[in-house]
Amino acid sequence: MMQGKGKFSNINTALSQVNLPDYDWVIVTDDDVDLPPRFLDMFIPLCEIMKLKISQPAHRYHSYTSFTFNYRKWNSIARVTRYVEDGPVTAFHRDAMAYLFPFPELRWAWATDILFCHEAHKRNHNVGIVDYTAIEHLKPAGNDYSVREAMTEARAFLARKSLQPDRQELFRITEILRRIDHNFLNCDIMV
Prior knowledge:
This protein is of the alpha+beta class. 31% of the residues lie in helices and 21% in strands.
């Protein structure tokens, strides 16, 4: 990571060296996350089943998250939602990368997730959360930077994009996957 550059600036630099159409998924993860065993083996197939174009794993209940909406929902394997955070772990399908890349180059990247979801919904693409592969974020957001500066940047970014999110609409679940043939993932799935 290049010092002084924001999260997505660094990701843009790294991804500019890659032929993105060769890949089905781009997974972006912070360095302070505990992933469950076989994370990608379960996470990606569940994203595919739900036809998610932007997704995140749910948070375990003792994980640091910005919104309780992101905590694991019991009796759910995965859910289609109106909102997905841009961290600490976010997956972007090839279809979403076609219209999201290059990512906005904000210092703290707050509110980019609102733009990402807005762009996905304009294209009738699903975004959602995979509850079955819940992760643990080990540190709270803003633990090592100014939350006030990040919020100021986010508000200015949303104003430039003319986005005024409705919190009730953002935190809406439109579909829940409760059962799946356990042979599909070659593992036991219970909720």
